[in-house]
Amino acid sequence: MAKFLAELLGCTLPSKGASPMFESKSHSRVGLKSSTKQKSTIFSTLASEKSLSDCKKEQQWKPSMYSSITPVSFPSPLTEKPIGKESMPQTPPFSAMFDSSGYNRNLYQSAEDSCGGLYYHDNNLLSGSLEALIQHLVPNVDYYPDRTYIFTFLLSSRLFMHPYELMAKVCHLCVEHQRLSDPDSDKNQMRKIAPKVLQLLTEWTETFPYDFRDERMMRNLKDLAHRIASGEEQTYRKNVQQMMQCLIRKLAALSQYEEVLAKISSTSTDRLTVLKTKPQSIQRDIITVCNDPYTLAQQLTHIELERLNYIGPEEFVQAFVQKDPLDNDKSCYSERKKTRNLEAYVEWFNRLSYLVATEICMPVKKKHRARMIEYFIDVARECFNIGNFNSLMAIISGMNMSPVSRLKKTWAKVKTAKFDILEHQMDPSSNFYNYRTALRGAAQRSLTAHSSREKIVIPFFSLLIKDIYFLNEGCANRLPNGHVNFEKFWELAKQVSEFMTWKQVECPFERDRKILQYLLTVPVFSEDALYLASYESEGPENHIEKDRWKSLRSSLLGRV
Questions:
Q1: What is the pTM of this model?
Q2: Which is it for the CA torsion 127, 131, 135, 138, positive or negative?
Q3: Would the pLDDT of 470 be above 60?
Q4: CB of 145 within 8 A of CB of 106?
Q5: CA geometry: angle at 66 spanning 62 and 69, to 5°?
Q6: CA-to-CA distance for 127 and 117, rounded, in angstroms?
Q7: Residue with more model confidence, 14 or 429
């Protein structure tokens, strides 16, 4: 995990080679010389979606990769009314959790809350003791927590305690509030509270289902669900059953997905090894499998959305978990660092970058290499137009890897105008300002979409992780008085919940199994093999390259 985080944040590691995600920009072959006029002609689709409100938002706070983060205040919308006594709470989509002014932080402030360990300022919840925040999560007869609070606290609470510990406390408070364990409890009161407790459990199981892979979590859930379903209301039993069935389906799908990933990983082989042992098994390239750049961009989007869909929101927090100074359990943090789906997605980015570099370095003839470069430039442009920024950046990263960028004779035959513009869009200067502008355009398009294709927003994932990391590092989890710094967690939850909205989009494109199979399983060159193929295509230019070429031929091919 330490190595994964270091690579993700661009740190230098004593490893064999740097991830293409963080290939040094000094290796880039192309200068950023595109004009604004060129950019607007190719990317007018997203640029046209930019509204006056978006221009205003550009002046608001944006998390910086390079500076410390300070909490900010957002204007508060109108306070929502507490849920009616007879109505069943409903779960709105993630996009409904926010409006243009940010979180709904009006969380039914009362004198009791103010005296119970919660601190407000201008009706905004800023901090509180952990116990008070837990109590604020649990509904009672006259109160149901705001959905933004539920999401934010369930997301951030794992920084301070295990999810199963929180569930145990919630169960205890629910039983205490409802007096379900008392056979003489007021049944009318039970009927009022039961749907709210059930809705809280539904929120938890729908948004953080991976928490329930822990047997202790599932045991507490079943116990509380049984108490709710044991009442006289048939509706409660039916809703409990539906909640449990939905959770089981999600966990089963996750297990199946992880099995597929494990199978793909176990069968992956270095392309050079395959070429030496079974050269006839790789007689195709990506163009022979799919000669249409738009179709390939669609299939890449399939893979991106499928892998995004399995990333749990808690993984963003667990990736950067550190020891809570008030936590005496020294073993708990190592146990809860479960980020396998997040890591698998980063590995996919790296694979795609190496696949692009492999496909470019493989052809023997210069004109074929140039054709392959132009093909991937077109694929990258189509990814941009779709809103698939992660595949776009992976392709650019692959083409900027040193074994590819050093092929000067090949690049001389390439029409690079479109590539110049793509690089300009993903230019890291000014904290990726151009990319962030394009991302806001895609997000605005998604909000006003008239078709499923316009809803697609796939962010450059490593930058999203960096934003969350620096937000986490820039603010303390606890204030000097020991209170939880909830202002920080509002901002954290806002970023994660936006991602949650994007990952729930269903891919509208038709699946092509042949293309998907190739993208996911075809062997790719290692970094050393890429350098060797590059030197074989266009010979070394200096003594350092010549020495490395000889060394690679000796170690990889057994030649001198």
A1: 0.78
A2: positive
A3: yes
A4: no
A5: 50
A6: 8
A7: 429
